[in-house]
Amino acid sequence: MMDFAIAGNPMRAYVKTMDALVIGLLGTLGFVLGLAFAFFFVYRHHLRRLRRAGRRQDPLGRVTPVRRRPLPFQLPNRWIAIRSSNTALIRSALSSRPMPACAWSEALSRCRERSCFVSPTVNGWTLVIGGLIPDPGYDIDRLYHFLSGLSQQVGEVHFYSLDRVLNFHSWARLADGKVVRAYAWTGETVWNEGRATLEERLLGLICRAYGEEAEPVRYGEPPPELHNMERVILLARRWSIDPVAASEILLQQEAVESGNEDGTQG
Length: 266
Fold this sequence. Notes:
The protein contains eight helices and seven strands.
């Protein structure tokens, strides 16, 4: 009997040691998981604060001085921003025939014509507007081939569009002919390629999967597509250049060059 008790004590001690080790490991695991959850909730809270701050005031909003008066022309529904100052190469890539050369004020007034107008370079970016830019609401495949072909020749190309009546909207970013990120909504998702960028997430842009239906609109609430519509220019500002700010700069340059800094007819 004595021999059994003596022999049994090491076993009990071993069991107690293993129990303490398991409890210690479980406690450590619980601490690590708790810390991970804490970081996760802090990150979500921080991201929500950034989104709310972005809705109230975009940190890149003051690209140019405050306008003294509104632009004399409505901005086009579609435009392209190209990271290049080689306007001759851009004109050649856009068409085999000579592109119409005109002042940017004239280009804005004629932007619905079936042509393309190339702006002077602003902060390393060149804008392209005109009715020859394919409309994603009519033919998304034609738009894809147009942008990929252009990007193969000029490098980094950004495309933006918004239909203020139907709330259709799209944006695309290509480099060397390949799509980095693209999304287009024309009553349904017709183009969703690449991972959503940090800028899209911070702006709270809604990107639905193919075949995903929009939520029903509640009475008194704006359609969810309007949320994206209001942020297309903000995305352009973060990805490339704000067309409003760029147009202000170009129109001001035209006024200065014409000897009329205020842009009014004397």
